[in-house]
Write a structure and sequence with these properties.
Layout lengths: L1 H10 L1 H13 L5 H13 L5 H26 L1 H7 L6 H15 L13 H11 L4 H25 L4 H39 L1
């Protein structure tokens, strides 16, 4: 963590944007660790909170929007490209489609907390012809939740970022679980409302 903190301290906001954009595009860059680092630097007064969160959200949205457009234009080929280096691409494709079919675009609210899922939801949203405005709204909300959660941990535990990194992995699982419960409740509410309107 020290190396990342020093790297961000040296290069500032630009490296945060580049790291998160690369992470969301698919490069093996530890995006959450960069957010922890900028949170700690914001606590110490080296960075400002508002520009930090703005750039983090913007980087995530722009990267995922690129994947959304790829899915919209190329359909299943975009998803298969993502899984092309895995052992069973077809199996991974099928599981991703089944997950998206079950929860739909609201997965954008939580997918960044789940490794693997964050890569496939944007292109699946595009392939399913999710409205662009709806995609951008959910994507921005999800990117904001993700950025605030990890940068917030860095801010709170600026004195012990290694512990913050441990909490970050647990927080991701916890928040993802809460979000899944929320999506299920929302889906059940909509299904109930539709059933009642049909019976009326």
């Amino acid at each position: 963590m020290n190396a990342i903190v020093q790297f961000v301290l040296k290069h500032g906001y630009s490296v945060l944007f580049a790291a998160l954009f690369a992470h969301q595009i698919g490069f093996p860059i530890p995006g959450p660790l960069f957010l922890l680092a900028v949170g700690a630097l914001a606590r110490n007064g080296n960075l400002k909170v508002a520009p930090t969160l703005f750039l983090a959200v913007l980087a995530c949205v722009l990267a995922d929007w690129a994947w959304y457009e790829m899915g919209r234009r190329h359909g299943d080929k975009a998803l298969h490209f993502i899984h092309s280096l895995t052992r069973n691409p077809d199996v991974h494709d099928r599981r991703a489609k089944e997950t998206f079919a079950q929860y739909g675009p609201p997965l954008l609210l939580l997918c960044k907390f789940v490794p693997g899922l964050d890569a496939v939801v944007p292109p699946l949203a595009g392939a399913s012809r999710t409205n662009r405005l709806r995609f951008l709204s959910l994507e921005t909300a999800g990117a904001t939740l993700y950025s605030v959660a990890y940068a917030g941990l860095g801010y709170l535990f600026s004195h012990d970022l290694n512990r913050a990194a441990t909490y970050a992995s647990r927080a991701g699982t916890f928040l993802a679980g809460l979000a899944i419960i929320g999506i299920c409740v929302y889906a059940a509410h909509r299904w109930s409302a539709r059933s009642n309107s049909r019976q009326a």
